[in-house]
Amino acid sequence: MSLTITLVTTANRTRRFQQNNPKEIAEILDSLKRCAQWFRQHVLVIAGTDTTEMINPSAITRIEIDARQDLSSFLPPALSPVIHAISPESLTRPGEIGDTHIATRLDFYFNGGDSLTGWLDSPASGTPGERTARNARLFEEAIITYTTASGGIGFINPGAMTRVHVGAALAFPPAGAWHANEA
């Protein structure tokens, strides 16, 4: 097995790293258990054979880890991805947010110009009030997970997001929401 790690920064720069060593891969996969802390640590260090790269985690918009196997079993159960990355040009059906199910397009926009398009298809969890509270705290979350187009796992840094476009109306917008349509 090999891993490809892709980092996108708030300068809209993409860095890729490769690992083929089984021992090193096991350590990286073990760190997925602590992924909710990645963007809150002081530094992310990627130590290669010939070089070392030190990255400020707050300057990372997202991280993607691709392998030739499903990596979701390495994540804490609460972070199992329900968002699936899609091409921005993908045509999607109209979004729908109901009492028991959510299916909608999401467009994430980040500091520096990076963007990510995804499709959320999941049972609605919690009461309407709990969902409203989660939406109000979206940018305060530690991490948002998604599956990559190639089947890997992605990790969004909510602190680097500037906005999220939801392809459906929220049934219960947070208190203080401005009610207006796109012009």
Can you summarize this structure?
By secondary structure, this protein is mainly beta.
Written description of the protein model:
This protein has 183 residues and is mostly beta strands. Helix content is 10%, strand content 37%. The protein contains two helices and twelve strands; from the N terminus they run E-E-H-E-E-E-E-E-E-E-H-E-E-E. Strand 1 and strand 2 (14-19) form a beta hairpin. The longest helix is centred in the first third of the chain and has 10 residues, at 22-31. The model has no long low-confidence stretch (mean pLDDT 91).
Largest sheet: 5 strands, antiparallel
Alpha carbon gap, first and last residue: 49 Å
Helix coverage percent: 10-25%
- Mean pLDDT, to the nearest integer, reads 91
Structure classification: mainly beta
Number of strands: 12
Number of helices: 2
Uncertain stretches of 5 or more adjacent residues: none
For the largest sheet, list the strands in their spatial order: 2-1-5-11-10
Radius of gyration: 17 Å
Percent strand equals 35-45%
Order of helices and strands: EEHEEEEEEEHEEE
Shape verdict: globular
Strand and helix layout:
Layout: E1 3-9, E2 14-19, H1 22-31, E3 44-47, E4 52-55, E5 60-66, E6 83-86, E7 96-97, E8 101-110, E9 115-123, H2 128-136, E10 144-147, E11 153-156, E12 161-166
Antiparallel strand pairs: 1-2, 1-5, 3-4, 5-11, 6-9, 7-8, 8-9, 8-12, 10-11
